[in-house]
Amino acid sequence: MPCDPTRTATPAVPPPRPTPPARARPHPPAPAAGRAPAPAEPLWVRPGSVPGMGTAIAFEHVRKVYVDGSVAVEDLSLEVREHELLALVGPSGCGKSTTLRMANRLVEPTSGRILLGGEDVTHADAVGLRRRMGYVIQHVGLFPHRTVAQNVATVPVLLRWDRRRTTARVEELLDLVGLDPAVYARRYPHELSGGERQRVGVARALASDPPVLLMDEPFGAVDPVGRRRLQSEFARIRRELGTTVMLVTHDVDEAVRLGDRIAVLSKGGHLEQLADPVQVLAAPASPAVADLVGQGAAVRLLALGRLELGDLGPVPGGPGADQARGRAGPSDEPIALGASLDTAFARLAAASDGRVPVTDSGTVVGSLDGASLLAALHRVTRAAHDDEAAAGRTA
Ligand SMILES: Nc1ncnc2c1ncn2[C@@H]1O[C@H](COP(=O)(O)OP(=O)(O)OP(=O)(O)O)[C@@H](O)[C@H]1O
């Protein structure tokens, strides 16, 4: 992950945030027994929000040429919507990290404009800008001689929060990322596993509740199982906080699992496609995207598609049903309408007779077999093609 060597990612003090909306998070985490009471003001003020409400970050014709003449990003225009997670994927060296680092000016753009919440920050004070954005990188960069609690408290201390508020915040964050403060707060980074260090890095980046979080291969140093767990926990945290996230990853599965939208880049920061995960998988906009999503696209789509009524065969035992095969046996546990297609696939594979009853609010509304699963997959793919075509018409 190359960068301008003169620049650092020192977290610092964010400007005051606007008064939170009255619709604060409905269930703030309760402080654990025996801990310092939570301060009167809510620690989490941003409710989980729907993406697409406005533009959080806009890149306008941004270009980066490094001092040795390498053109990392030729001419990139891209918008990150408020509250969405935009995943940047693409082959090694295509300019993902450069793009991310231009957002917080760890790398200075050569030309073009970058807007944060509508404000042109291309020439704003870079340190001040970084104070408004969390930043998580693969090798977390925890301070080795500070405890976990001190690491997480880095920004609150810079913000001169009082001790009680800082302690409450640190404990809340550690709870949030699944590390028991009683066990972990006093440990040092070398006393943690890679996955635990990664969690501390995420907690530290979230400590001041930044509206925007930049993440560069944040789970890259973790083994596949731990990575999967971290991803789902992070997805949950993000849903709760409504943080806007720009995530760089090599891992298409990670982009599909976490991204509201995916930006596929090719060499020179060329934007090949910017679309939701289903569209990228089912309707790749160019051979470069098709190449990136590869042979696994159909399997990945299974995880994204949902079972709908129109996909189903007749109700087992109902009119028109194949009576010989139709009735659900005790081992054929029904599956709910709206279940993900990969769950449906797994259930079907285990079914005693290749058919699974499907229920809606407890009532059997149809049955699932191989043909219906295929129909569902085709439906998802067709819809993605239609959406992509519509996007092309309006572009
Ligand atoms: N400080 C630098 N000086 C010169 N060239 C650089 C510098 N940083 C990056 N580059 C070049 O810019 C291009 C884009 O690099 P960048 O790190 O943004 O790509 P990437 O897509 O994040 O790659 P990876 O996935 O391998 O991390 C590459 O060709 C790289 O060699």
Top keywords for this entry?
395 residues, alpha/beta, Rossmann fold, CBS-domain, 2 domains, six-stranded mixed beta sheet, four-stranded antiparallel beta sheet, 15 helices, 13 strands, 35% helix, disordered N terminus, binds adenosine-5'-triphosphate
Describe the protein's architecture and organization.
- The chain is an alpha/beta fold.
- Residues 1-49 and 320-331 have low confidence and may be disordered.
- It has two domains: 55-294, 3-Layer(aba) Sandwich (Rossmann fold), CATH 3.40.50; 309-376, CBS-domain (Roll).
- Helix 5 packs across helix 7 (194-206) and helix 12 (297-304) crosses helix 14 (341-350).
- A hairpin with a 2-residue loop joins strand 12 (356-360) and strand 13 (363-368).
- Helix content is 35%, strand content 19%.
- The longest helix is centred in the C-terminal third of the chain and has 25 residues, at 370-394.
- It starts with 54 loop residues before the first strand and ends with a helix.
- Bound molecules: adenosine-5'-triphosphate.
- Adenosine-5'-triphosphate binds next to helix 1.
- This is ABC-type quaternary amine transporter.
- Keywords: ATP-binding, Nucleotide-binding, Transport.
- Residues 1-11 have a biased composition (Low complexity).
- Residues 57-292 form the ABC transporter domain.
